[in-house]
Amino acid sequence: MQQIGSFGEWMEYVERERALLLFVKTDNCSVCEGLYPQVKALQANFPILFYKVNVAEVPEIAGQLSLFTAPVVLLFNEGKEYARFARFIPIEELKYRLGEII
Question: How many C-beta atoms surround the C-beta of residue 53 within 10 A?
Fold first, then answer.
């Protein structure tokens, strides 16, 4: 997964790519650390771009995307948010949604 360094950088990717996934984490989040490898592993099965961001390092993205917890997984399709999973992310549901946007 490629690291996002600013909200502007993220918006460039959203405008340029058809479908993407954003994994949002924060510091000292054990749920984030446990979920990250599971989400990252999905990258091998789905031909879309996967990105990650730490909201402690890029707080603007939390405000702009209305993120109030972590972890959050956002799916974007055609420049718009398609699906949002927060805190406890069901991997099977995430796989299903990824399949829908391919």
Answer: 28
